[in-house]
Amino acid sequence: MLDSKNVLIAVPAFNEEESLPEVLELLLERYDRNQIVVINDGSKDRTASVARNFNVKLLDLPINLGVGGAMRTAFLFALRQDFDAVVQFDADGQHLVQEIPTLLSSLNNNDLVIGSRFAGVGNYRTIGPRRWAMRLLAFFISRSVNHKLTDVTSGFRASGRKAVELFASNYPSEYLGDTVESIVIAHKSKLKIAEVPVAMAYRQKGKPSQSLVQATLFLGRAFIVLLLSNMHKNSSRK
Amino acid sequence: MILLDGQTQGLVIAGLLFVVTFELLRRRFLTEKYAAIWIVLTVVICVFSIFPPVLSVVAEFFGFQLPANFFIVIILVFLIGFAMQISLEVGKLESEVQRLAEEIAVTKLENNDN
Questions:
Q1: Greater pLDDT, B3 or A195
Q2: Taking a contact as any Cβ pair under 8 Å apart, which residues of chain A between 72 and 101 contact chain B?
Q3: Which of A119, A159, B56, B65 is deepest in the core (most CB within 10 A)?
Q4: Per-residue pLDDT for A42 more than 50?
């Protein structure tokens, strides 16, 4: 059984000084400050000092790398510090602390567990073209990894030991790479991928785009990522 | 009104290229790795300028009627190749910089903890 004390909770944060305090408060109610790490992704605001004030661990990136680069840093740290698993938890307040155990319990039998917004729990909804774009994408990825997934762009996910080892050296940092391509990479490395339904809060700020043009662009980029990730030689990035 | 014939033009261009490359190398703005390609280009232009028949012979060999056309094609191929090399290097540099940033963040945290 996975010991929840030996799980690293990674909070990638880029200019999140406003929402980060509440997120950290909620996390600290259930988890120890030594297992929570904020990855300050080259923020221009006070994100780093917020993390310092809460006395949680801080990975302070000197430049902005994007969510993928921030998470790769967290995986590298988890590997060096011998954590058994890493949970990605967004700094914008979208993810719910009470859903972390849901991810972790599924991690006992799997290497990568994705928290899905569309698998039946909670009231998260997207409407219009973006919804169809996400469905179509989920459909194609499900086929390419031989496993039914409903929410491939979810950032709420837990990685077990094997996945941490893989992702520490091989985690895409391009847009959509961290969510979509990482699933394909995990599948290619024969990791067991699972999905659990989770509830999520509405995004506190920033509305998900819903226009047809944006949805089409999103889908186009996602498919390029998907196509490339299926053709990449499976060598680790240096 | 033509001030310089083709031969002299070529030599002037080659000379300028050589001076610029040499000066950048001397000031360490340009590394030897990238200087090589410019020096090769300089030498090629020199050879064609001093011995124009060489260009004609080679152009004819590759089926070009006008040596000048052949020369332009060579320059184009060279520039495309060089642009490709630069793209590759930039991509490599970018991922190296990312790696370093990650290492710095992890090392900083590990040192603060101890």
A1: A195
A2: 72-73, 76-77, 80
A3: A159
A4: yes
| Cβ–Cβ gap A60/B108 under 8 Å | yes
CA distances to B63, B82, B83 from B76, in Å: 17, 10, 10
Is the pLDDT confidence value at A237 over 50? no
CA distance B15 to B9: 10
Task: Give the pLDDT confidence score for residue A85 in this predicted structure.
Answer: 96
Which two structure tokens, joined as six digits, stand for A228? Answer: 């490339």
Min distance A227 CA to chain B CA atoms (Å): 19
**In the predicted structure, residue B106 carries a pLDDT above the cut 90:** yes
Which residues of chain A have a CB within 8 Å of the CB of B101?
61-63, 65, 69, 73
CB A215 within 8 A of CB A128: yes
A59 at B interface, C-beta within 8 A: yes
Tell me the H-state helices in B1-114. Answer: 6-26, 32-50, 52-61, 67-113
What is the torsional sign of CA B37, B43, B46, B51?
A: negative
Cβ distance A58 to B109 less than 8 Å, yes or no, reads yes
* Six token digits for residue A26: 């909620």
Percent of chain B with pLDDT over 90: 29
Smallest CA–CA separation between A65 and chain B, in Å?
7
Q: How far is CA A229 from CA A23, A64, B12, B55, B93, in A?
A: 33, 23, 49, 46, 21
Is B70 strand, coil or helix?
helix
Could you identify the residue written with the tokens 């232009």? B45
Nearest to A58 by CA among A85, A77, A72, A45: A77
Which residues, 6+ apart, have CB-to-CB distance to B55 below 8 Å? B48, B67, B70, B71
Concatenate the DSSP letters of all residues of A147-184 into one string: S--S-TT---EEE-HHHHHHHHH----STTIIIIIHHH
Q: Is the model's pTM score more than 0.90?
A: no
Return the closest-CA partner of residue B109 out of A74, A85, A89: A74
Mean pLDDT within A66-78: 94
Could you tell me if A169 and A236 are in contact, meaning their C-beta atoms sit under 8 angstroms apart?
yes
